[in-house]
Amino acid sequence: MPGHRAPVGRPSLTAPSPTASPPERLRRRLAAGRGSLSRPGGDLRRLPTGLDLRNVRLVEGVRAAFAFGVVILLNIWIQWSPLLTMALAANLACFCDNGGPMRARLRVLTAFSVLGGLLWAGLGLIQPLGLPLVVPVACALIFACSYARVWSVQAQSAGNVLVVVLCIALDRPLNGEQAAVTAVMFAAGGLWATFLALVIWRLHPYRPAHRAVAEVWHNLARLCGDLERLVALPEPDTAAFDGHARGHRRGVRASIETARTMILDLARSRERVSDRTAQALLRLESAEQIFAALIAVGELIDSRPDARRRALAKVFLRRLRPLLVTIARAIRDDVNLDFTRLEHSIARVAEGLTEDPTLARLADRIVGRVRIGAKLSTPEGYRPGGTVTEGGRLDRWTRYVGPLAQNFTLASPNLRHALRASAVAAPALAATLTYAGAFTHWLVMTVVLTMQPFYAATWQRALERIGGTVLGGLVGAVLAYYATSPLAEAGLILVLSIVGFAARQISYGFFVTCLTPLVVLLVELLEPGHSSWEIVAMRGGFTVLGGVIAVASCLVLWPIWEPDQVRQELRRALKAQAGLAEAVLRAPPGEGRETAIAAQSREAGLALNDLEAALSRALQQPRAGSHPEVESALVADATLRRISARLIVLRHAPEAAAPEAEPWRDWITATLAALGADRPVPERPALDRGQSLVRLVSQVDLLVGTLRPGEIRAATMVDGGAPETGRGTDARAGRPVLPS
Are 516 and 468 in contact (CB under 8 A)? Predict the structure, then answer.
């Protein structure tokens, strides 16, 4: 049941004013362009390195610090060195814990604890046998750890941390007794952290899923606020709407899919849908339907409406946003809403819109879903549990063997990444083992952990890791200078652990900045005799060198040429858009049509997100950003966003189903399907398009002119005139993205 805090009544938060001062508008524009881990920005050319302070997890930081801080304090009292191995294992186990269902976390953390101990003991035993044996074994293990990402995000984290264990294990040889003690103590440390996280100090099992749903509603409020800003512009701005679509729509769709995955994983782990899980699913479904309707509202604003429609839309959005914020806060804080008081504000949202029937229908749909979201935050809003109906529980073969087999091809970025990581690690391992030193393992760690399947991700990771290491190293050196006793170092380590783990999801660069002082102090505690400035200099130097090697390797070894990825994702987006057009324009009325539209709309949104991710990576790759196919795909992406939005509007426009418009409906669907399947484009009907389809046909013409300039010119010669290409953008006469 939800918490027992005071009920929340009518929202008092006002929407942001679109008439803010120029510095404020500039700040918003810059903030919208620079994305973060959870909120992709509207500018695909900028790396998503922004800070997301909403993801601070202070309680998780305190728990992680307690997990290994207790063991460190015990070692200060007993003075038995294997306890330091146990403390390190507890610390590393906390890095593997990304949250989620208890059973999945138990599997990952237990496997890490046991495999980490065996890995350290085994490599310590073979270390004296020389490079011909050690390097191939280590590279094979690095391949396995890197390839583990095909299973899940948790497995990816565990694989990365096992690489850290591997590098540390090769520092010194072990005899049989030392290897046994190391394996046992490492497993004990990992299992202690697991026991603490899953038994003693259990965080609310539903909290991550409900936070994810709350984030969806917050993102809807941000989308609504940005739409209000756009509707207040004197004239529709094509570039502003493109940025809005790429930033907000992409972010909302990504957050919806993240929340859906977390909820279904939670349901599968319990093999039933509890009342809280059902509540989260209903909230997410309502939010997704609001999202679709807001896309349609944005299309109405973008399609040059009259001043009256813009004024009505502005009032509607201004009333709607505080409600979305109120529901998001109620979900996040797990509090009850006073629905009786809130109902007045909900009913008032759609008032005065009757003179614009299309906008009124959309507003009524949104208000209905807002009402459902508000009712679900009342004591009467729960639903009884049931069994899992979507996907069910996965068998072991499907869960473990299936992903390995599906990705075992050179076309898979995951396999290429694992091969690249092991190949580049081989000379690095040979060099660090030949010229051994106390900190040389940092080179191999940096190379493997910086390297990502795609060049753009590797470039971003290298920049953030290098910048965070240098800044954090300076902070760590200053702190180490004033920590003159083991007890003082232990106290600082605890504080830095809390800060570091709490900041894990803010941004990778910020996390590395917080982590590096912790590493400096841990090294001073575990390896006494080294100056803090020496530690900082060595870590900074190896980080820079490793980052350069990782970036260069992505361009040389099994590189993924991003224009090829853009072409594949564009074809997928075209096919998904054709499916959406088929459902909206040709499916017979009824419940089946609505179900098909919802499914195809989700598929089209995901395909456009994947296309924009590929475009963003291509714009970061040398020589790829100016490739003709990438430039054309940028135009096609913006056009597909408009086509998708227009189709959602037509879903609520009865006049689009008029019999006389059927030839154009068939042509639109067939043209999109032909572009996606690399077939010739059908001939345009020699009929009037009808008012409701004018904008959609114009956007399809623009898409054909962008991807098939030869065919659109031929159609122009036959028709005796130029087709409309849409407002603000001309059809490009360059190389076609899809070969014809």
Answer: yes
How would you label 704-713 residue by residue, b for 16+ Cβ within 10 Å and e otherwise? bbbbbbebbe
Q: What is the DSSP letter of 635?
A: H
Q: Are 265 and 100 in contact (CB under 8 A)?
A: yes
- Taking the CA atoms of 654, 285, 152 and 469 in sequence, report the sign of the dihedral they define: positive
Residue indicated by tokens 């590096």: 516
pLDDT, average across residues 208-226: 90
How many angstroms separate the CA atoms of 147 and 487, rounded? 40
Mean pLDDT of the chain: 81
Tokens of 700: 């399809």
Q: Find how far residue 270's CA is from the centre of its chain.
A: 25
Find out if CATH 1.10.3210 is the number for domain 204-375.
Answer: no
* Least trusted range by pLDDT, from 24-33, 65-74, 367-376: 24-33
3-class SS string, 383-401: CCCECCCCCCCCCHHHHHH
Angle between the N-to-C axes of helices 153-169 and 82-96, in degrees from 0 to 180, rounded to the nearest 10: 150
Cα-trace Rg, the chain: 28
- Domain-by-domain residue ranges, the chain? 55-203+403-556, 204-375, 562-719
The alpha carbon dihedral of 564, 567, 571, 574 has a sign of positive
d(CA 523, CA 518): 9
Residues 6+ apart with CB under 8 A from 134: 123, 126, 127, 170, 429, 433
Max alpha carbon distance in the chain (Å)?
Answer: 92
pLDDT, mean of residues 192-219? 84
CB 434 within 8 A of CB 131: yes
8 Å CB contact between 672 and 578: yes
Give me the residues paired with residue 8 across strands: 337
Is the CB of residue 508 less than 8 Å from the CB of residue 464?
Answer: yes
Are residues 90 and 67 in contact, defined by beta-carbon separation less than 8 angstroms? Answer: yes
d(CA 647, CA 585): 8
pLDDT in tens, 157-185: 999 999 999 999 998 899 999 999 999 99
pLDDT at 118: 96
Q: Stretch 226-251: mean pLDDT, rounded?
A: 81
Task: Write the DSSP symbol of residue 659.
Answer: G
Gap between the Cα atoms of 42 and 637, Å rounded:
13
Contact 640, 726 (CB under 8 A): no
Give the residue from 540, 541, 40 showing the smallest Cα distance to 252. Answer: 40
pLDDT digits (tens, 9 = 90+) for 585-638: 888 877 788 888 889 998 999 899 899 888 888 888 877 667 788 888 888 998
Compute the distance between CA of residue 489 and CA of residue 483 in angstroms, rounded to an integer: 5
Per the listing, tokens 């396995």 go with 144
